[in-house]
Amino acid sequence: GAHDGPIPPDPRGAWPADATSVTGRSVTARHAIHVADLQAVADDEYPVGKRQALELGERTVLATPLLREGEPLGVDQAVIAIENVRLFNEIQEKSRQLEIASRHKSEFLANMSHELRTPLNAIIGFTRIVMRRSQEKLEPQQYDNLEKILASGQHLLALINSILDLSKIEAGRVEVNAGEVALPAVLEQCVRTVEPLVKPDAVHLVKEYDAALPPMYVDEEKLRQIVINLLSNAAKFTERGSVRLRAQASNGSVAIAVSDTGIGIPPDKLDVIFEEFEQADASSTRIYGGTGLGLAIARRLARLMGGDVTAESVLGSGSTFRLTLPVRYRAAA
Ligand code: ADP
After folding, report:
1. Residues lining ligand 1, judged by CB closer than 6 Å?
2. Is 20 helix (H, G, I), strand (E, B) or coil?
3. DSSP string, 172-206
4. For residues 284-320, b (16+ Cβ closer than 10 Å) or e, as one string?
5. Are 120 and 157 in contact (CB under 8 A)?
6. pLDDT digits (tens, 9 = 90+) for 284-298
7. From ligand 1's centre to the CA of 292, what distance in Å?
8. Rounded to two decimals, what is the model's pTM?
9. How many A from CA of 2 to the centre of ligand 1?
10. In the 8-state DSSP scheme, what is residue 276?
11. How far is the CA of 206 from the centre of ligand 1 (A)?
12. 197 vs 321: CA distance, rounded Å
């Protein structure tokens, strides 16, 4: 027919309008051509196109002839766009794989920590029995050694429990069990739990609750775990002065602040301490014990309930940790 004759080459000479390139062939064939990997085609398939693809590092090419009433006017190439889509898909696939791997890690840690607790509880339990039953018969040195076994066992148990908590959250195995909660009553329980950790005489525990605290709809156990964690940190890191617990409500959210007059936190550590195993003082000469997991768990639990935990501090003067939570928990859609 009239349209089948050869089309004059591109005046710049770059694009022979024939079957030797993808664009050329799409024009002569008058339909779109998609080549997934132009560098991989046979040498005689698109000789000109392949050469250019190798030179320019192109792979995927989509060529669409621009036709008017069946007559080719030109050709539209979408090389770069397609390459970007391919890379984007590749990255998406990679991050999906990473997510799966990370979930496997969390699952493994959750199962492992659960299994480790059984023998460890036996070690702790039997150490206690021996200490109780044989204190008179043992040399003081041996009794001391048993105390060290017990202390190490308890530290290990605390670590394992924290890792279990953390990996359960990460594996998505932690659910929010919200119920109606009277906040002052829960805060009182937290205070009573932590009171023995506050240095007697040197540190005052002060409570300031807003008179008009609304009833909350929240996971009481998680709320308690977070507040106890913040209070026991404050007690641990404060040698004199006060530990102050405040609760306020405004605009549908509750702020529970724990302020202390303790050692404080250097500005460059304020964010880091919320990460797993991070402690402001990571040196081996560290005075204060701990696992470095408490705040990581507290923040994750708070976020799970639609809130957060944040920190402010002045090194040497004290710190304030603030838990904010919606008054009424609403499950994410
Ligand atoms: P742990 O207390 O078991 O080390 P956390 O995650 O609870 O772990 O805390 C991480 C670190 O944050 C602590 O080791 C400490 O350096 C710092 N920190 C937390 N709370 C306080 C506080 N109230 N005052 C000073 N430092 C704090």
Report:
1. 233-234, 237, 260, 262-265, 273, 279-281, 290-296, 319
2. coil
3. T------EEE-HHHHHHHHHHHHGGGSPTTTEEEE
4. eeeeeebbbbbbbbbbbbbebbbbebbbebeeeebbb
5. yes
6. 667 787 888 999 999
7. 7
8. 0.70
9. 83
10. T
11. 20
12. 18
- Testing ligand 1's pocket by substitution, the residue of 233, 238, 278, 288 carrying the most ligand atoms inside 8 A of its CB is 233
Both structure tokens of 138: 């043992």
The CA 85 to ligand 1 mean position distance, Å, reads 45
The pLDDT score that the predictor gives to residue 12 is 44
Phi, psi angles (nearest 5°) of residue 276:
-60, 135
What's 239's DSSP letter? S
Q: What is the pLDDT of residue 14?
A: 55
Amino acid identity of 103? R
Residue nearest to atom 8 of ligand 1 (CA): 292
CA atoms within 13 A on the CB side of 247: 24
CA pair distance 331, 328, nearest whole angstrom: 10
